[in-house]
């Protein structure tokens, strides 16, 4: 009986991509890593201020109302950060999602199966474990508002790519390019699922006339980009109008950001040409630094400022919702992402790339439990910003993300020597042509 043939390149999971893909991912991740560091500083600053003798000043700043009431824009600074600045974050996510569907891994159904399966499982299992945990902890307690608690089921489902990359930067691991690319694609699909959940499950009433009116500025945005009219002031007009109309429709305003991003024209031939910078790439490179370096950190500053002193921590550790969030982020994400990846390998009879092991996949799966930006947003939508339960959720998201980061650090550092060897091969350029030799050799 003959032996089974070794898997071909087509049947390898998480294999190294092209130099064009690797260089694009490297540039993008550098921006996100810097943004992640700023995000961490903003979150720490908020926590320190909210637990200092001047905590009332922090609350006053966060709750200061700015904007005209006649247009329904009399919002607190915290709400402006959540509804306005996060729309920029989702605009970038929308552009990245469009590029992935047209020219990235998601354009190939065989390649897309892995990150999609991992992302979907990484959303479903945390939600299930959250529900199971809440039901188990409230069993027999007739006074518990179980229905209200379960509104938070989506909190532990999101991965914060900037936060996760900041963790990688801190631990100093030389993660192979294929794993970094997988983490990015996973986060992109995760963002799409997250915004869909927000639009469908956290929208109480919809004013369809306002939603219909948003079609006009969205169409104008698309037309301007099709004609390559990319002046920032010109593009800002339809973008702001679309955001205003979606906000007044009752749908969360961040949805406007995703719609704008998905309407950015993407042409595969331009994306594949290493000598060209496509319109989508140029637009993304303009907006991403503002998103990663300002918009998300400002949101984090207003969202992460929870008071721990005075009983806040004690209340959180006994709250079934907070416990469910931690279980979902730490166990649900790790098992879900790892299980989804393993299932694809099992049912397609594929094997991991020769440079990787299942330990690497597990470490990355644990890292996916670092949730922050979208988790905090969903917590506010589920329980109301500034409420006692929302404060418990904030502490749970911070605690769960910290535990996931520490566990991922422990797992990934076990293979750091191997990662350095892979990194050395992926960066060696003996012929000095600007392209590492490994990307010019058949695998």
Automatic annotation (TrEMBL):
Superkingdom per UniProt: Bacteria
Pfam families assigned: Na_H_antiport_1
Transmembrane segments: 33-51, 71-95, 116-138, 150-171, 183-202, 208-224, 290-315, 321-345, 357-383, 395-414
Membrane topology listed for this record: Multi-pass membrane protein
Keywords, ordered alphabetically: Antiport, Cell membrane, Ion transport, Membrane, Sodium, Sodium transport, Transmembrane, Transmembrane helix, Transport
Catalytic function, reaction form: Na(+)(in) + 2 H(+)(out) = Na(+)(out) + 2 H(+)(in)
Subcellular location: Cell inner membrane; Cell membrane
A GO CC term attached to the entry: plasma membrane
Family: Belongs to the NhaA Na(+)/H(+) (TC 2.A.33) antiporter family.
InterPro entries recorded: Na/H_antiporter_dom_sf (IPR023171), NhaA (IPR004670)
Principal cellular location given in the protein's record: membrane
Protein name per Swiss-Prot or TrEMBL: Na(+)/H(+) antiporter NhaA
UniProt-recorded Gene Ontology molecular function terms: sodium:proton antiporter activity
Presence of keyword Mitochondrion: no
BP terms from Gene Ontology: regulation of pH
Stored PANTHER family: NA(+)_H(+) ANTIPORTER NHAA (PTHR30341:SF0), SODIUM ION/PROTON ANTIPORTER NHAA-RELATED (PTHR30341)
Function description: Na(+)/H(+) antiporter that extrudes sodium in exchange for external protons.
């Amino acid at each position: 009986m003959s032996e089974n043939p070794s898997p071909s390149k087509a049947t390898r999971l998480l294999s190294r991509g092209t130099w064009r893909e690797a260089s694009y991912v490297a540039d993008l991740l550098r921006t996100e890593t810097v943004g992640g560091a700023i995000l961490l500083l903003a979150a720490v600053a908020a926590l320190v201020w909210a637990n200092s003798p001047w905590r009332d000043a922090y609350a006053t700043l966060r709750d200061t109302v700015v904007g005209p009431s006649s247009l329904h824009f009399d919002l607190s600074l915290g709400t402006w950060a959540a509804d306005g600045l996060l729309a920029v974050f989702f605009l970038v996510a929308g552009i990245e999602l469009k590029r992935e569907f047209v020219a990235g891994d998601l354009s190939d159904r065989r390649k897309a199966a892995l990150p999609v399966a991992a992302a979907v499982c990484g959303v479903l299992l945390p939600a299930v474990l959250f529900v199971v945990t809440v039901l188990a902890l409230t069993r027999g307690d007739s006074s518990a508002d179980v229905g209200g608690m379960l509104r938070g089921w989506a909190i532990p489902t999101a991965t914060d790519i900037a936060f996760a990359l900041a963790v990688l930067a801190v631990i100093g691991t030389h993660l192979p390019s294929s794993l970094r690319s997988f983490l990015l694609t996973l986060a992109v699909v995760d963002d799409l699922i997250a915004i869909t959940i927000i639009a469908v499950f956290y929208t109480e009433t919809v004013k369809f006339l306002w939603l219909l009116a948003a079609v006009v500025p969205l169409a104008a945005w698309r037309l301007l980009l099709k004609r390559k009219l990319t002046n920032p002031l010109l593009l800002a007009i339809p973008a702001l109008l679309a955001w205003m109309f979606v906000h007044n429709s009752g749908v969360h305003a961040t949805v406007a950001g995703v719609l704008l991003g998905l309407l950015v024209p993407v042409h595969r031939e331009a994306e594949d040409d290493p000598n060209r910078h496509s319109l989508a790439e140029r637009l993304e490179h303009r907006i991403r630094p503002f998103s990663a370096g300002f918009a998300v950190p400002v949101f984090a500053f207003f969202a992460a400022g929870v008071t721990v002193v005075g009983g806040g921590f004690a209340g959180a550790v006994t709250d079934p919702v907070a416990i469910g969030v931690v279980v979902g982020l730490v166990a649900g994400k790790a098992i879900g992402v790892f299980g989804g990846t393993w299932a694809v390998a099992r049912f397609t009879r594929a094997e991991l790339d020769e440079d990787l092991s299942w330990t690497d996949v597990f470490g990355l799966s644990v890292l996916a439990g670092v949730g922050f930006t979208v988790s905090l947003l969903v917590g506010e939508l589920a329980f109301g910003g500034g409420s006692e339960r929302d404060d418990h959720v904030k502490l749970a998201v911070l605690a769960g993300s910290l535990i996931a980061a520490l566990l991922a650090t422990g797992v990934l550092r076990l293979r750091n020597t191997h990662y350095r060897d892979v990194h050395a091969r992926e960066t060696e350029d003996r012929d000095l042509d600007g392209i590492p030799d490994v990307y010019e050799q058949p695998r």
